Amino acid sequence: MVRGDAVELSTRAVAAATGYSVQQIRDLEAHGVIDAAPRKHNGYRVFSARHIRDLHAYRDLAVAVGPVEARRVMREIRVLPPADAPVPVALLHVELARERDHALEARRALLLIRAESEIDVEPAESDTMTITELAGALGVRASALRFWEKERLVTPQRVATNAGSARRYPLAAIREARIVATLRAAGYRIPDVRRALTDLRDLQDIDVSLRALDSRIDDIAARTLSLLRAGAVLAEIIAPR
User: Fold this and answer.
1) CA 151, CA 191: separation in Å to the nearest integer?
2) Which of 16, 45, 109, 123 could bond 170 through an S-S bridge, CB–CB 3.0 to 4.6 Å?
3) Distance CA 64, CA 55 (A)
4) Tally of domains within the chain
5) What is the CA radius of gyration of the chain?
6) Is residue 171, in this structure, part of any structural domain at all?
7) Are 66 and 147 found together in one domain?
8) Dist. CA 179–CA 169, nearest whole Å
9) Helix H segments across the chain?
10) Dihedral over alpha carbons 92, 98, 101, 106 (to 10 degrees)
């Protein structure tokens, strides 16, 4: 039970207690973030401590997943059946965990890039692979290598053959292909892979990217704590004692 739930509060009192403006409180009520406030005979809204509690929970939820998603979830848990209402909240935890996993994988990939870039090996003519050999070594389809070439992520050599020409991958191209495969497996989109390869050619930017990822991982941790703080109130909304 929320203490002071029976106390009648004006819109301005709720604004002072939560830091939201009077208009924001009206908008959040209209969006279903908080229960509709009953009205006095003169039309003035009457709020309670429960509304203040829910607005604080909304703030934590907005920090965790953004205001648009927070509004959607707080609206849904009020109208869904009790058996279904916890699902949108659980999915928020899943998504944050997925974000963290992708950030950690990206960080590991950048560390791999930095480690590989520190190995200065001059490719020799014999140290090449065909597209079939490289695809097999990386565990990808040959069509993926051709697509990466089209996107200018990997640059094989063209050698003359009786049938015309064929792709050969020297050590530099093999290294690029390994990096692309690692980043794609870590969830990088093609534009992200392109940026990472640009970083590879300018090593000072790799450290910048690593610091940005560390900051992102810390941010995800803070957002997860905000989600946990909001969770107790969301549970109370779904299944009040």
Assistant:
1) 9
2) 123
3) 14
4) 2
5) 27
6) yes
7) no
8) 14
9) 11-18, 22-30, 49-65, 67-79, 86-117, 131-138, 142-150, 171-185, 190-201, 204-238
10) -120
Q: Which of 76, 60, 33 is nearest to 228 (CA)?
A: 60
Question: What confidence tens digit (pLDDT) does each residue in 201-233 have?
Answer: 655 567 777 888 889 899 999 999 999 999 999
pTM of the model: 0.68
Determine the structural domain holding residue 155 and report its residue range: 97-219
Indicate whether 237 belongs to any domain: no
CA 127 to chain centre: 39
Is 106 among the domain residues? yes
User: Are 60 and 126 within one domain?
Assistant: no
**Amino acid at position 66, single letter:** G
| Cross-sheet strand order for the sheet of 157-161 | 129-130, 164-169, 157-161
Closest CA to 33 of 10, 15, 57: 57
Considering the domain boundaries, does residue 170 fall inside one?
A: yes
Question: For 70-94, what is each residue's pLDDT tens digit?
Answer: 999 999 999 999 899 999 999 999 9
Same domain, 154 and 206: yes
